[in-house]
Amino acid sequence: MSKLFKISNKAVKSVMAEQSTSSNVNITDAVLNQSPVIKDAENVTINYTQPPSTSSSDEDDWDAVGTIMKEHNRRLEKEGDFQFQGVSAKTEIPPVYPVISEITFFEKDKAPADEEYDPDDNKELYSNKIISQVQFQDLLKLESKFISIIGRAGSGKTVLSKKLTKAFSSSHRVCIHIKFMDMNNKQQLTLRKLFLDNMIPGQNEKVYENAFNWLKKNDEKLILVLDGFDQAEYTLDKKCSKINYDECVPEKQLIHNLFIKHLFPNSLLVVTSRPHAVLYLPEPARPQVTYALGDLSLKDTKKLFFAFADEDLWRKINTTSSQMLSMCRNPLMLQMIISSNIHPSEDIGDASTPTRLFATVMENLTYSHNFQSPETMGELARKLQVLAFDATNHGKVVLTAKELRDEGVDPTTIHDIVVQLHCHRRPINSRLLEGNTKFFFCHQTFQEHLTASYVVYGMPLEQFQDFVETSLFQDHWTVVRRFVCGLLFDLESKAVSGDIQMKQKILKKHLILQLAIISEKCMESSPDDKALTDKLLDLYACVGEGKASSIATKAAEHFPTTIHLPQPMNSNLVPGFCFVMKHVTKQLDELSLFLCHLDVNSFHEIASVIKEMKPGQIGQMDIDANLLQPSNIDDVIRLLRVVRYGLHMWDCFIDDDGRSRVANQDEINKIQSTLNKIQSRLKVYVDAGITLRSQK
């Protein structure tokens, strides 16, 4: 557009003088800079053509952001929060969250257990690093920081990241959720291309340009949620060249500039990952705050369970295999347990033990055909068994592409497998391995079950004998040992090969020998020797896993007359302990559950076994400092007939706020009434000042 300007020569000289000393330029300055000036003329007439504007208005930019976010949110909504295997939600998914803890993380650069094989998969990884526990709402108050959210596979990182994205979004805040799995670009690209063009395709150039302009100018209102950094196909170098927003560079350089807060410095950056990938970040690119995800609370576990299954299934699992309920506190395990019960294997039967559960999952996968591989899932599983054994043997959970190829597994086909069960069952989606340059089984217990499957089905008999004698009963093989027992002893009633029969005999002989040795050591040592008690309970877990009644009878013969269970006691050890206790016929001097932190289900399971024992079969019993609910008073009353002399029950209940409490008056009355009926010499120590005994 052309405009005529008529200004005096004096004004021209004045403006030109100001230009030499000032950086402030107005419209007249622009005119003079682009037009000839005629000295000595009293007036200067200039025909100035204003260049067309290349910048958009704030309204245009914000409208473009709205267009982008509408499509972004539509895609996020379409994905959903939970993609369960073979089951669909019966009701709307309630808001459930894993336990979230702020932790110290970058101390001494010690690799966490998610990269090193750890046989105790129920142990908290960061119990000694917790600063404080936080709520989901606390994460929404964070500003201008780089935070990481870490956790094991199946802990709920992706679900939490999506919930954060939805909660962060507001009318004037922009939250973008991107998976590293969907990135991993080989070609060089710009930041705009990475986050907008590639992630939200289908928009016109002007929309992308305007939206990116708004993000650059308003980065304090931007939240970037980058999910699954452990699936990135690169590591960040110690040094990084800083770039501008429009440079075309490799993807890892873009990510590095985001991590060091050079690009979008005022934004909130949230990155989720397995721990090992974050641990090895160079110091300038490390998050300022790290949060670790634990399991779901029992309350949230039940909410999520009932969204996909009914209370009848919960009661069935609680009755037949209560240890499964504690496993359900991991969302990934919860989906497998529900799926295996709704679609049980026709060959395996009820998934009432962890061994049967994982055998059911693998059996179902064996029939799958909808994945990009020329071989069957059964053939693939046999190769995975070898890989799993080698990894466990060498103390790792990471597999490389070379290791996969050496075993005849194509890394490009194993990644993100989609499988389908028998045509009469619902389709199942399953990711067995994650990552592209490093591979992990979707849960460590998968690796352990596949390892045990190799030992049972793939290991030559001679090697098996040597393995049982020299390795299987070491702590490194604790969980694998349970699966080996579960697999082999579950085959006793079936027609099997001669090698399998020999393996059953070898394992039974050595398991009974170990039970005798450890039981004798427990009776000779202090009852408080935790290490010995743990070993004994691990052996009981093996017996219970295989439902081996003949071995349980032998274990019961050696059962210590005085035993103090661990403080606290892992709930997964309760079923095996109870399986052996059912076969105990001898008199016991003392059974202590002091400070075991037994919950309502675990205590009920133990009490249900004890009530079937002979009257007075246990001398002293201590149930102090547990986590019992009011419903457990009936379980306590069942103990009164079996205990001869003393039952200690200080602070064995918890109130609604989770604080310990003694029995209330109503509970005391029930105990006293039962004592009067059985005419026992038993004393019940309720509190320092309250001792109950029969009044007859």
Q: How would you describe what is shown here?
A:
The protein has 27 helices and 22 strands. It has 696 residues and is an alpha/beta fold. Among the domains are: 48 residues, no CATH class; 231 residues, 3-Layer(aba) Sandwich (Rossmann fold), CATH 3.40.50; 110 residues, Ribonuclease Inhibitor (Leucine-rich repeat, LRR (right-handed beta-alpha superhelix), Alpha-Beta Horseshoe), CATH 3.80.10. The longest helix has 27 residues.
Outline of the structure:
By secondary structure, this protein is an alpha/beta fold. Helices cover 43% and strands 14% of the residues.
Topology, element by element:
Blueprint: E1 2-8, H1 9-21, H2 27-34, E2 43-49, H3 58-79, E3 98-103, E4 130-134, H4 136-139, E5 146-150, H5 157-168, E6 174-179, H6 191-197, H7 205-217, E7 222-227, H8 251-259, E8 268-273, H9 275-279, E9 289-296, H10 298-308, H11 311-320, H12 323-327, H13 331-342, H14 354-366, H15 377-393, E10 399-400, H16 401-406, H17 411-414, E11 418-419, E12 428-429, E13 433-434, E14 438-441, H18 444-458, H19 461-470, H20 478-489, H21 498-524, H22 530-545, H23 549-557, E15 562-564, H24 574-581, E16 588-592, H25 600-610, E17 618-622, H26 633-639, E18 643-648, E19 653-654, E20 660-661, H27 665-678, E21 683-687, E22 690-693
Parallel strand pairs: 5-8, 5-9, 6-7, 7-8, 15-16, 16-17, 17-18, 18-21
Antiparallel strand pairs: 1-2, 3-4, 3-9, 10-14, 11-12, 13-14, 19-20, 21-22
Protein name: NACHT domain-containing protein
Domain NACHT: 145-279
Keywords: Cytoplasm, Repeat
